[in-house]
Amino acid sequence: MSLAAMADPALRAAGVVGIWDTDVPAGRSVLDAGAAALMAGDPRLAGQPLPMEIALGRLHPDDRGWVFGQIRRVRRTGGPFAAEFRVLDPAGNVRWVLNRGCLAPDETGAMRGLGAYIDTTDAHRGPFLPAAASDGPAADPLAEAADHAMRAHAAIVRSENARLRLLVDMLLLETGRTLARRRHP
């Protein structure tokens, strides 16, 4: 099997729910079926240019203000975008989603963006690494620290403090590297 044929199942296994393509001047985003189902609540909206309010229709009410604010900012300035927030599925259950992408001028100079939605719900249900995944005892302090750092990361992203965001990103990176070195010296 070719790598290209394995890409979609591998991305799904990694939690990628769907992708988005944004035409900033038009104020519209096009979602694939997975993104349309989770974010807009209707997979039949896939492929249609949608306004932000519909494309993010399942966004948790407590997260709408700050998420829309971050999106509006990056639509003005361009650059990378990352935000982790909650969405409500049709049954009213909370799912956590990491939205990552980048906005940049296209060949005509118009701002466009591409990105993906990644389901991170499992990371919010327990420790960052299950006890069985570590070489140490069930109460591994570094795994516990990673779990707290993930929660801190989500809060700092919402605070929009760039310096703290850089610091918490560095903390997560080094914690992850340290945990990986333990498993694969």
From TrEMBL:
One of the Pfam families matching this protein, by short name: PAS_3
Entries under CDD domains matching the protein: PAS
Top-level taxon of origin: Bacteria
Residue ranges occupied by any PAS fold-3 domain in the UniProt entry: 56-110
SUPFAM superfamilies to which the protein is assigned, alphabetical: PYP-like sensor domain (PAS domain)
Family matches, as Gene3D superfamilies: 2.10.70.100, PAS domain
UniProt name for this protein: PAS fold-3 domain-containing protein
The species this protein was found in: Methylobacterium trifolii
